[in-house]
């Protein structure tokens, strides 16, 4: 009886815990062109990214869920805004080896492209990079 109970407890632990979870703190710059003035703007950005299984969230982008693809070199995050990418797209890639990130997005018009670049640090379970 004790052995059966042990296996039930172990199975419940695996079922309730996420299979894969990782967090990053990313800092860099965002570049875009003001569609009203035509001038380029450069802003510092900070992201807190949480990846759980095959989905990710970026703090500050509420209600946007990113699909995550992973290969040997990078985590690739992609999201669409609106149905069938009509309102916009957001892409983000984190290099596993160097921590560098790049990103590109547009909103309402494909001509309004905003690019991002910088560095990410993995956050451990204590909440520290």
Question: How would you describe this structure to a colleague?
Answer:
It is a single chain. The chain has 129 residues and is mainly beta. The chain is built from 1 helix and 8 strands, in the order αββββββββ. A hairpin with a 6-residue loop joins β1 and β2.
Keywords for this entry:
single chain, 129 residues, mainly beta, 8-stranded antiparallel beta barrel, 8 strands, 12% helix, globular
How much of the residues is beta strand, in percent? over 45%
Which strand order do you get reading across the main beta sheet? 1-2-3-4-5-6-7-8
Q: Would you tell me the structural class of the helices and strands?
A: mainly beta
Q: What about the largest sheet?
A: 8 strands, antiparallel, barrel
Element-level helix/strand string: HEEEEEEEE
Topology, number of strands: 8
- What is the helix fraction of residues, given as a range? 10-25%
Query: How many angstroms does the end-to-end distance come to?
Result: 44 Å
